[in-house]
Protein 1
Amino acid sequence: MGVGEPGGAGGAVGAGAGGGPGGESTVVIQASTVSKRFVSYRNRATSLKERFVRRGGPAGEDFWALRDIEVTIGRGQTVGLAGANGSGKSTLLKVLAGILRPSSGSVTVHGRIASLLELGAGFNGELSGRDNVYLNASLLGLSRREIDRLFDSIVDFAELRHKIDDDVKHYSSGQYVRLGFAVAVHVDPDVLLVDEVLAVGDEAFQRKCLAKIAEFRAQGRTILFVTHSLDLIEQMCDRVLVLESGEMIFDGPPAVGTKLLRQKLGSLPSDGPVDWQYATVRPRSVGFSRHPDGPTTVQFDPGEQLVVSVELDLGEGAPEAVYLHAYIVGQDEIPIWMMETPPGGFRLGPGRHVVDFAVPHLPELLGAFAVKVHVSDAATGVPVTTRRFDELFGVSGTHAGGLLKVDYEARLRG
Ligand SMILES: Nc1ncnc2c1ncn2[C@@H]1O[C@H](COP(=O)(O)OP(=O)(O)OP(=O)(O)O)[C@@H](O)[C@H]1O
């Protein structure tokens, strides 16, 4: 076990946001404690008699398709989203695309996002292919003039010139996907979200799509795609997120994540514990105290020292130096302040480490607070993982009608 020493005795108490590697400018998608609940009507009454007997009973059961998803995606990353059928991949993509609202949590996207989600999403079957190109591209933020300029290229990419004036409802599923993909890649997106729709296209079109994705990747755009092809994830992705029953069980290198999923799906023998054990960096726990070696404390007074200790597990393949942001968040996840490691991060080898953030004098503050930790590769700024801990600490400042007590004067002018 090693102890990551923050710079100087006082600890890494940073000021200002996003100053170092891994700062805000590299983040294009940020999902915080995202959950999505559906109402499941599995036991819905099917006959009039049943409906009568069940009258007044629950209308449906809550079903969590996503639970507490924390993910930070950096600019230029190609991320695969994998998991068994029904694990929540499409739901997550729709929430990130803004098509579904999360039941709780928040999603922030920086830049233009183009999505190619399930068949049927985005196109109006009663309109022609031509009208749908205009409709779709304008929804993605293009002006009519821009669409006029791109129109031929979109139609050529889709290879649908002979069908472009037919109603989309008469398209085959492959033709539909061709047009959708052609529009999505022509709107100059910063972020491209692609569901497992490529499988619908024929082999030639799949090759064309994959070449386009590779081109986007080379241009440093961000791509998030759902696929059941674990080989494709290994070939194309920098990172894989694995979902299981709505929870993210892995976020890390493709070779490791796909191995985990193959074990889960039974196509590889399991050789030991799975899940987070495989993640290269896992924020494991957080603790609060008045001194780095002091006992755990949960209640503080203003003016006292607060030490936030973040325990991290690093596996093989973890970045050579890791950079941490620790956000102290209040009610409704409002960030109160942020602390970060010194520029260059900490060099930590495989094993368990503790990073202490020491706040020498707590401000006059009132309430209960939690900690959210982002870890990124200090060399590249690429986000590695994020975790929001449930543990709380309290600060019993004077109640001044708000979170903070500040000095002020009330004066009448004139
Ligand atoms: N609108 C909805 N209402 C109720 N349940 C839903 C809805 N959409 C999805 N679900 C359920 O949420 C769960 C996750 O679905 P989702 O489509 O995200 O899974 P997936 O991982 O993409 O699956 P697949 O690999 O089969 O495409 C499933 O159990 C699904 O039945």
Protein 2
Amino acid sequence: MTQHDHEPLEPRAVSRRRLLGTVGAAGLAVGATGGAVASAAVRDEPPTALTSLGATRVPFHGTHQAGILTPQQAHGHLAAFDLAPGAGRKQAAALLRRWSATARELMEGEAQGGGRDTGIALDAGPSSLTVTFGFGRAFFSRTGLTDQLPTELAPLPEFSADALDKDRSDGELWVQIGANDALVAFHALRALQREAGETAKLRWQMNGFNRSPGATSHPMTVRNLMGQVDGSNNPKPGEKDFDARVFVPASGTPAWMAHGSYAVVRRIRMLLDDWDKKSLAEQERVIGRRKSDGAPLTGGSEDTEPDLDKRSADGSPVIAADAHVRVTSPDTNGGAAMLRRPFSYHDGFRDDGAPDAGLLFIAWQADPLRGFVPVQRKLDRGDALSRFTRHEASALFAVPGGPGKGEYVGQRLLEG
Ligand SMILES: C=CC1=C(C)c2cc3[nH]c(cc4nc(cc5[nH]c(cc1n2)c(C)c5CCC(=O)O)C(CCC(=O)O)=C4C)c(C)c3C=C
Ligand SMILES: [Fe+2]
């Protein structure tokens, strides 16, 4: 099963307000979805975009926040904010209330309320928009809530290979936006940034992308900028330990984190000029999987478990001792596992001509000390892939469970 199967989404007709901008006068005589189809026929365009990609809606309310189990979207924005001088718990609560109301509206495919909509996404459906909110460690001292600070939010250890830019790391409040339309994604980012107003100031912001749905003949695990199929052996919903690995249990502490998760965010630049010089065989040896289809070098298909014990005729392991899948496997890390849900990024070219590109690595887990940290400790000692990557920014956020109807994200923390 690929990550595309994780969570059923809700394709549905877009609102009449959205439709007005899309179909013009020709489409107004028919219903919403039919109008899109009719208009597309008039313009001789394939009638697929608005009915499937554009119309797909992800619920804002739920047990978990959207954007964790949601299939990876084509466009992403990550933004971290710090509370402005003088802003405290009350102002933070008001901001989270505003942000949640806006996130719900935009995820529904509605305009931002209060006449504040910028019109950037006027013609589009919700396009699988998700907005996910989290809290960084410094938020708790800023708001006098240190008694609610989760132990899981302890600072990540320093890793020897880290070359972190402090200005693009950490942050008190975190927003993850994903959508299958670039304008819908930017619309949400701009709306939330404007609503931060005088309460919170942007600390850092990063833009990412993945493959667009429909670009391949069938749903596939996404590829990263090294060309690898990335995400194959993610824990999958329905597996025995999935919830325990990814989400804080209902009875977990602190109580406001019930059904929540911890997100480790790392900006990892890829040394693509070095990588692209390697032969296919060398590249596959680095990971331990085939580049073409993601199957382990020990055989089978993408879904086959790598056989870490298998040896070649000369006695050497088929999956090398320093291959990325061996070093990161839960089997070699005391069961440590995380749900990886990254975006690729490309921020132009550096002075030496190399792409400033890589992975906005986002790992979701119930406890980073049983997920990211032990695995990164091992990678830091040097797996084959680390020679081609540089960790340039890092952050850890507590992401509370999903809001109930009428609730805003973080209400149980801020008003508990
Ligand atoms: C600390 C955790 C990890 C970091 C950092 C990381 C960086 C990183 N990974 C890839 C590409 C691939 N990773 C793959 C598997 C994989 N990676 C991690 C953890 C980290 N990766 C885990 C836990 C696993 C799964 C291991 C397993 O159970 O077999 C793969 C193989 C396919 C897959 O399962 O996803 C690829 C490809 C890059 C490019 C990268 C940094 C830029
Ligand atoms: Fe990896």
